[in-house]
Specification:
Layout (H helix, E strand, L loop, with lengths): L1 E8 L7 H8 L8 E7 L6 E4 L5 H7 L12 E7 L13 E3 L4 E9 L2 H9 L10 H12 L9 E9 L4 E6 L8 E4 L3 E5 L2 H4 L11 H10 L13 E3 L4 E6 L7 E5 L12 H18 L7 E4 L4 H16 L7 E5 L9 H11 L2 E5 L3 H15 L7 H14 L4 E3 L4 H5 L6 H10 L3 H15 L4 H12 L1 H4 L33 H10 L3 H14 L3 E3 L5 H7 L4 H4 L7 H6 L6 H4 L11 H6 L3 H15 L6 H12 L8 H21 L3
Pfam families: Asn_synthase (PF00733), GATase_7 (PF13537)
Family: Belongs to the asparagine synthetase family.
GO biological process, one term: asparagine biosynthetic process
Amino acid sequence: MCGILSIVNKKVNSTSGSLIKASSIIRHRGPDDEGFLTWQPSTNPVIWSGGDTAASTQEHWKYDTLGENVSFKVGFGHRRLSILDLSPAGHQPMIYEKAGLTICFNGEVYNYLEIKAELATMGHKFHTTCDTEVILHAWEQWGVKCLDKFNGMFAFTMLDYRKNEMYAVRDRFGVKPLYYFDGANALYLASEIKQIRTSPDFKFELNEPIARKFLATGAVDQTSDTFYKNVFSLPCGHYLKMDLSKDGNAFEIKQWYKLIPKKWAGTFDEAVVEFRRLLTAAVDLRLRSDVTVGSCLSGGLDSSSIVCIAADLLKAKGDFAGQETVTATYDEAKYDEWKFAEEVIKKTNAHPHKTFPSFTQLKQEIDAFIWHQDEPTGSTSQFSQWAVFKATNEAGLKVMIDGQGADEQLAGYGGNDISFYAGLMKDGQIGAVMEEARAFKKEKGYMPKGFLIAAIQLSMGKALTALMPAKFKVTRIPDVDYIVGGESSMMYGEHAKSLHENLLRQLYSEPLPALLRYEDHNSMAWSVESRTPFLDYRFVEFTMGLPARFVYKNGVRKHILREAMTGIIPDAITNRRDKMGFVTPEETWLKSEGKEWFNAEIDKACKAFGGKILDVANTKKYVAELVDSKRKFNFMPWRVICFNRWFESIIKEQAGNGK
């Protein structure tokens, strides 16, 4: 896991000071080593050391140190967090001279050993034990098609200096970030937006439509757009290709991966076996490392499954030492999952580390937290995750695995019911609809009339719905009035027409892209690599091809996961019906301990954006109703506060840079 940077100059070749500045600002992503590469057309690329290049690397390679005034057409900057092949041989950027290729790589290709063995049979010779070299040889052998063979999380740039071509690639589901900014004089490709902000071409402009939707709904990272105009995220499963022989460096973006679910035709029991096999294989691959691998353990179904599977795999390999785990805990029982985490720890002989995120810590670290995120976050839940990775770093761990990505595939969130019922109706499964409704009534004490009516309307289409009596029509949720001019409070214009369609939205639009950004930036802030077995593409292609009622049945979310993990995780967790995750007592902080702070911060935001984006009177009224429990709690106050703190920090930074 690392931090990467690529600068491609247009007509004017800038000097290396820009490369050094944009690389040094992300030292947290790779404190173990630093490297640079510069290239001019019709020459061979040059590797340079930097101020943070490891002594062992410098002794081995004896690179010259990059100064401020080296001109280049293409420049790479790399920060290394050493995970595989800890030796100087794994130093980046890496050149494969025989093929005329050089790479700047962030992430992991977990199945690199299998690919390496295949390439060896074709005559390829290797000089390191790292996955980066395997990528170079695979690219030589198969070109862009090699991406289909990679099982991992990755973002990298690849320069073919003999063909005058450059590629930027992002993994299937966007686990690793890659942002780009096409400035007047140079194209920047970077792991974090803060690198782009160092560009002489960059001038901050707020992407107001993104800001308005975020403040109204919490939506973030739904598209390639960011909170910054002209800064974009390379879409997951896509690559950017640039012809360097032409002025202006025109580029095109193409999709290299499209999720095609493998429709399941077997029985539920057979699916349970396959589910367990694929998840176990995904965890096993992600245990590959030359440093200790720990686990983020909340005590929920997902993280508990990962920890228990990993424990069984390690024991089968003769490792009985027990995993290192990190858990966030709270004094308030409503938000604390320690009793569940403790069950897993006892079962697996894990070595637990606990962290206690507090309101005091939030106030002390909020600016650092927001700076690392680069964009606003939806709630203080992301701060809880920040605290977990801080504790991970303090425990001396560099690699963690967790359960990110399971909810989006397995209906782990609320809000799936209308689409679920509509899909069953569309498929003519009326008996299943009635069984689900009865199960809902058994648990809740009433029939899901609203869900059923909405699902009927969704199935009927707009023309037939218009003929329904008004009293049966589901009315549109009103716009939020604390945004000037009003803003829709709905993420989408209408509900998805099936559970499958709704889960695809969650995977590709909201919330997974945002959660992956939070996780990457939170973990890397503390120089920790985070791995996500549930996003193994083989597993995703399997789960997304399952019948809806294998996933969500009789009101029970993650039905197949519970069945597959029976006997593997503690029964107390298998039988859990609540959904928590990286929660904080945000509601308690708002209403008691942090009431004055929240109100003061809301006042600041209203002064900054009153009449522009925020309607001051309605904003303060909304928050007061939340504080007085006259309105159901939600994260709106934090969104307003976080947005304003983020905006202020960017304006201050830009002023300091003379922009």
